[in-house]
Amino acid sequence: MSTTVAGLLQVGTLVVILAAVYVPLGDHMARVYTGERDLGVERMLYRLARVDPRRQQSWVGYVLAVLGFSAVCFVVLYAIQRMQGALPLSDGKAGVSPAMAFNTAISFVTNTNWQSYSPEIVMTNLTQMTGLAVQNFVSAAVGMAVAIALVRGIVNRRATGEIGNFWVDLVRGVIRILLPLSIIVATLLLSQGVVQSWHSGFAWTTTDGAEVRSVIGPFASQEAIKELGTNGGGTLSANSAHPFSNPTPFSNLVEILALLVIPVCLTRTYGTLVRDRRQGLTLLGVMAGIWAIMLTAVWIFESHPSGAASAAAGAMMEGKEVRFGIPGSALFAVSTTGTSTGAVNSAHDSFSAGGGGTVLWNMLLGEVAPGGVGSGLYGILAMAMITVFVGGLLVGRSPTFLGKRIGQPEMTTAALYVLVMPALVLAGTAISVILTATGEAQGNSGEPGTPGAIHGFSEVLYAYASAANNNGSAFGGLTVTDDWFQASLGVTMLLGRFVPIVLVLALAGLLARQRPRGTVDESAAESAGVTGTGPTGLAGPGRGRAVLEATPAESVARPEALSALPTHGFLYGSLLMATIVLVAGLTFFPAMALGPIAEALL
Questions:
Q1: Dihedral of the CA atoms 303, 304, 306, 309 (nearest 10)?
Q2: What is the pLDDT of residues 433-455, one digit of tens each?
Q3: Mean pLDDT throughout 198-222?
Q4: CA 133 to CA 126: how far, in whole Å?
Q5: Helices (H), 232-374
Q6: Is residue 528 part of a domain?
Q7: pLDDT at 309
Q8: Residue 520: inside a domain
Q9: Does 407 fall in a domain?
Q10: What is the number of domains present in the chain?
């Protein structure tokens, strides 16, 4: 069987599995966030935290809860790292330095999982389990909670301004979604030989008689939530390329499936919650279209050798595992940069100029194909609202989104959301490349205009694109252990995560204070028994089921609904995709021309 056929079978298998779980998992997540009953363990946690699960929050209250919780997580994780040398299971490792602990704490709290260190050398197993793995769960749950809060703002018909309860969303996301899926994925990985051990390592003798030591630890459990939560921080420097974490082509497929499954299925959740499944399918189509184009581009670039060594190997195999090959490496690279994950099974710095530029571009699109857990959904919804506004102006239709008017406050908030990431990327890159110390940190440098200097610029651009998009992957040729990179990348990750979250929740609040402009048949809702909302701020699954099945969000009846631009179907999906590409193109083309494009043309 040829490599191409094997790769196509892998892609086909992945798509078939995603299609099979799309409906059940998507609807399950919808029930999780709309259910009225709490599990026993959830009630216990609410009592311990003195949280009233029936209390609804405004967007301001929701923001304060998110920021307060994240601040506490940062302090706890920072303290664990600094004190790890005095804690059990230290294995002789000292506490992490202040700058590195600061950067790492921000990285994992923001769901970025950028690593400026070698995990097997710096972090103890206790820090990995009680610090980093815990953040893998809760930071992912925060992203899902924010996405659901925005959906609540869209579907709120009573103009109350309430968007749910953050603490309920957080707990349910961890206990009912992330934890069960992690157990399934970890079990599959264990069956393939992924290491799961309480020991820190073992000694063995090489064939020439040398004594060496291999690091082991709780890899399978952390690999599972690393991918499911679109986190990316590995327990080994080689990340998901290491055979202890990803030993077989099947485990590679499982990990790619894990990092895609929740972001993809959240589009079904969205369609269910807004009572029009066409909405979710349209978003899914846009995500899938971008993902497929990026995958095709990387696969083609990496399959065509450039240079004598690559020509001898028959492909661009530098930095890639032979057991995965070009298809498995390209599939992983596109999926991880498109989902804000950052895990890697190959060295992105060793990709061809075209292949490396494509995965960089994948992040610069805003990571909405399909994006991170939660962040992908609220990111593409912000772009969808901008598309409605632009499309409405083009065709003379009212700028409304599922019955909610997109006026000046809503557009300002959405536009600010879109501008945050480019400002952080371009400012961070510009400042860094003029610093003398940056040249010393670059694995590639040289006279201006040479391939080394151009790739060195790409390394810096990739670093800030990864940090601002909360991705976490890197062009490994850039050394980022000095105080400038630790601090600047840490601040970039912090602002890149929480400023957009604040803006998304503000947008949710603006929408939640509006009554729909006739796009939901309220008489049908009342006849179905949906006269209010459940404790989560959305119609409960029992009371709302008739409306979910019978009342699409744009099926109705008031005259102003007829003047609204439809937000589903091929035409709108094409306009949304064009808007995403156009915004990124206008913003980043000059920077890309100075880096990957120039390198590819040499």
A1: 60
A2: 998 888 888 877 767 777 778 89
A3: 87
A4: 10
A5: 249-273, 277-303, 308-313, 325-338, 353-364
A6: no
A7: 58
A8: no
A9: yes
A10: 1
